Amino acid sequence: MDLSTTYMGLKLAHPLIPGASPLCDDLDGVRRLEDAGAAAVTLRSLFEEQIAREQMSTFAHTTPHGESFAEALSYFPSADGFVLGPEEYLEHLRKVKAAVKVPVIASLNGTSLGGWLRYAALMEQAGADALELNVYAINTDLEEDAATLETRILGMVRSIKGAVKIPVAVKLSPFYTSVAHFAKRLEEACADGLVLFNRFYQPDIDVDELQTVRSLVLSTSQELPLRLRWLAILSGRVRPSLAVSGGVHTHLDAIKAVMAGAQAVQVVSALLKHGPGYLKPMREELERWLVEHEYESLSQMCGSMSLRNSPDPAAYERGNYMMILQSWRQA
Length: 331
Ligand SMILES: Cc1cc2nc3c(=O)[nH]c(=O)nc-3n(C[C@H](O)[C@H](O)[C@H](O)COP(=O)(O)O)c2cc1C
Description:
This protein has 331 residues and is an alpha/beta fold. Helix 2 (48-62) packs antiparallel against helix 3. The protein has helices at residues 27-35, 48-62, 66-73, 86-99, 118-125, 146-163, 179-188, 224-234, 251-260, 269-274, 279-292, 298-301, 313-326, and strands at 5-7, 10-12, 16-18, 41-47, 104-109, 130-134, 168-172, 193-196, 204-206, 211-213, 241-245, 264-267. The chain has an eight-stranded parallel beta sheet with strand order 3-12-11-8-7-6-5-4. The chain has 13 helices and twelve strands. The longest helix is centred in the middle third of the chain and has 18 residues, at 146-163. Residues 19-22, 44-45, 107, 109, 134, 171, 198-199, 216, 219, 245-248, 267-269, 272 line the site of flavin mononucleotide.
């Protein structure tokens, strides 16, 4: 069975990729993923704040907003609170690249247009086959409108695209007023891929201690439908390749994502839970399912459930919404 797929121009043996996470923090882990058949590997993110921290002392003394910036940085982990510092990240990337044959995707995570973006070119020089730009941001400025912040992200993408030759994917959150319009604008900014979606790790409140409580809860398959919806809406309508991230735990989840239009299927929680070796049975089950259902190839299935030919995807969505609300019957 031909499971191959092309993601951002990278020819992959199949769509299953470990997403950005600690899974690739050591070479042993990376090799285990490759042994389990990972089609590519994604490194954890290097954060803008880590890079900025290095420059902070100069910045704090030379700009009018330096002190508030320094104060903001105090909310973030200290330099040694990050698993890999900026230089270590590049060194690790070089080693990962030398250790495996599959494509290596590096990740940058930040929210502003600035000098930190030069790390995109450094990652390319260190051997990255592609970059993922995670634009996780919570916009709290009452004066900043959606267009301004989207324009900033587009500026970041353009800046990186101007500095590197390797493909660049943007990992988005679902919280844009118009995901569809923003996807189109990212296409115009020459993004090669869109990763749908980021997952948020919101703190809870401890009502007795009056403290916020941080926790990392791994995903479940219940998070997939939001991704399926947007894959189906965007598939075939925008040029960038589409990858799913969030809620893929079984081969059936992966099949749904591919049917909705994903060219790559990122998996993290399932691999953290079951170990890197879990990728192998996932791929085998995926293949078995395709054979049993008489597909000739994975690409034959890709986008088969997309809404590209729907005369009105929004009406389809809204119709679905109304029907589900009307169908509830109290027991
Ligand atoms: C422990 C952990 C660390 C992660 N680190 C990163 C990261 O550095 N950069 C990033 O873009 N996403 C990171 N993610 C998010 C994952 O790449 C992925 O988007 C998310 O876990 C949803 O996929 P899943 O449902 O398969 O877990 C991390 C997730 C976990 C659980």
